[in-house]
Amino acid sequence: MFDSLLFDLMLVILIGILSQWVAWKYRMPAIVVMAVAGLLVGPIFGLINPQESMGDLFGPIITFAVAIILFEGSLNLDIREIKGFSKPVARIVTIGAFIAWIAGSLAAHYLAGLSWEVSFIIGGLFIVTGPTVILPLLRQAKLKPRVAAILKWEGIVVDPFGALLAVFAFEFIKFINSEVTLNALLLFFAASAFAVFLGWIAALIIGNAFERGSIPEYLKAPILFVVVLSVFVFSDEIMHETGLLAVTAMGMKMANMRLTTLNDVRHFKEDISVLLISGIFVMLTASLDPKVLLEIFNPYIVMYVTAMIFVVRPLSIWISTIGTDLTVREKLLIGWIAPRGIVALTVSGYFATILLEKGYEDAELLTALTFALVLSTVVLHGFSIGFVAKKLNLTTTDESGVAIVGGSKFAAGLAQSIKDTGNEVLLLDQSWAGLADARKLGLNSYVGDILSEQIEYHIDLTPYRYMLAMTKSDIYNAHVCADFAPDLGRKNLFQTSFHVGKDIETFTITGGQQLFTPAISIYGLEERMHAGHVIRKTLLTKQYSYTQYLRERDDKSILLYILRADGEIEFFTPAEELQATAGDAIIALTSPAKTIERVKERLDEEHGDKSIPYERLEELFTEEPTEAKREIPGAAPISTVNAK
């Protein structure tokens, strides 16, 4: 309808981002939605063909996008997190990856009929599983921690190295076929070493400039991306195919420099990465020739995809994990789950362009072949992971783990009380200082933005059934609940009451349920904690019912949650009146009045006339609890005083 490059670019970006939203909204793999959308507007209905309309720009756009995507992926390779690898993970990302490369290359040559050069390139490329695909599947299936960690870290580690392995395979095959001399091969390795050095130096310079404040805040993200592209192009001009190595080295160096300012450009970096991945994926699928697309159903390609799923992947896992403590069931699940992602398709498009330019005609099938494997693995593994994991008894039980967003004195106290029930708890805050109280109590905590796309690269949110948004920003709390609604369900998302007064009517975001009865803002909760209020647990019995507890409780108390007899947690909300029975426990934030009375009674018994006067006790208990405990002879910690 609109025959222009501008319209094609607009449509590609629009379809890509719309597909991402549909995937988020309906909890579907984004790659499947984008693939279907790209095929519909491209080879099926013929609305656009980006490769034709962009002409000579098509290749450079793909190349630049791949460079930025690989750089962004390598920023996740923090050695501090990799050091904790267990033996199975280390084996899978080394021995397993090598076996998968060799076996996949043989399958590509003998089953798909590709030349050795193209086969070894695609074999190296297909060792990647892709964190952008595997992480949503793990969240959906709720796997046990060890299996989930292995699959997650395999995807993160091998993701940027698949393309590099393809580069080295390409050069080595050319040497074996006498297309290049030994001197030329050695020159390539020398250029590769220079590319690594260039990326390392660039990371060092830009990282130190960030830390010294030599670059203003608003220029950090633009300058970083300019440097990434410059390093890529400069290295690639010296020796083709070494640019990918340079940007990967740059990303890894920056990831391990402990840069405090790297978080400042995180959102922009993620936004660009999502935009590029979405656009490039739609560009590649929309540019597929209908004839090439039909080759997906070629019996040889079908055999190749079948071999990759049912032979190559299980074989690489079983051999590489010999001698480890993985059980047979864990090996079966890990050997089955290996969805290839967006990086595999975008990088294959990059290599397809290079190989076609060098005269490898069978490289024309590279994108279609990659698309067949990507779509098959995403659909098969995406829709079967939950079923297979349950059959193998590798899913977590329906625990009442709680993730608390927002660090504060009250949040730390609430988290401690939840931890005491035996349930998992995690506190998250964007600042180190915000988690000070959590660290004092030895609680599990993480500094970072829960709304960041990269959050699950660093922490596993699977054990947490509930999420409580308790920051001092109401709008941020609402965004957290809205963002996690498709994953956790709105019934498991809560936020503290709004503290903006009449301005609450201006909020249009549908957040989570309001916390506690009566509803109270985080500011109110903090004031009470500093005034000496304590979190108290009261066990209900047949003699002491829930009705009696409600009748006798302090007017100022805040009902927090019910700990059921089976260990599950239910949070109080103003919208729903919970019921409790004998065996359940009520956890509430109460004034220290009853605690003072009980401590006074005990001190009178122990010390007689020398006991501290009630008025002095009241003063002490309205100060910091640690100070109070110092001055009360023989006093137990407040949290250990019985409610009855």
Structural descriptors:
single chain, 644 residues, alpha/beta, six-stranded parallel beta sheet, four-stranded antiparallel beta sheet, 27 helices, elongated, membrane
What does this structure look like?
43% of the residues are buried. The chain is 60% helix and 7% strand. Mean pLDDT is 81; it is low at 622-644. The protein has 644 residues and is an alpha/beta fold. The chain crosses the membrane at residues 6-24, 31-51, 57-77, 89-112, 118-138, 150-173, 185-206, 218-235, 300-321, 333-356, 368-389. Its main location: membrane.
Largest sheet: 6 strands, parallel
Low-confidence stretches: 622-644
Number of strands: 10
Count of separate DSSP helical elements: 27
Structural class computed from helices and strand pairing: alpha/beta
Share of helical residues: 55-70%
**Per DSSP, what share of the residues sits in E-state strands of 2 or more residues?**
5-15%
What is the straight-line distance between the termini? Answer: 77 Å
Please state the CA-atom Rg, rounded to the nearest Å.
Answer: 29 Å
Report the mean per-residue pLDDT as an integer.
81
Going across the biggest sheet, name each strand in turn: 3-2-1-4-5-6
**Shape annotation:** elongated
Domain RCK N-terminal: 402-482
Protein name: Sodium:proton antiporter
Membrane topology: Multi-pass membrane protein
Region (Disordered): 623-644
What is the fold's blueprint, element by element?
Layout: H1 5-25, H2 30-44, H3 50-54, H4 58-74, H5 79-82, H6 87-110, H7 116-125, H8 131-141, H9 145-176, H10 182-212, H11 217-238, H12 243-255, H13 266-286, H14 290-294, H15 299-320, H16 328-336, H17 342-357, H18 366-391, E1 401-405, H19 409-420, E2 425-429, H20 436-440, E3 445-447, H21 455-458, E4 464-469, H22 474-488, E5 493-495, E6 513-514, H23 522-530, E7 534-539, H24 546-552, E8 558-563, E9 569-571, E10 585-590, H25 593-607, H26 614-621, H27 625-631
Parallel strand pairs: 1-2, 1-4, 2-3, 4-5, 5-6
Antiparallel strand pairs: 7-10, 8-9, 8-10
Helix pairs in contact: 1-2, 1-13, 2-13, 4-9, 4-11, 4-12, 4-13, 4-17, 6-7, 6-9, 6-15, 7-9, 7-17, 8-9, 8-18, 10-11, 10-12, 11-12, 13-17, 15-16, 15-18, 17-18, 25-26
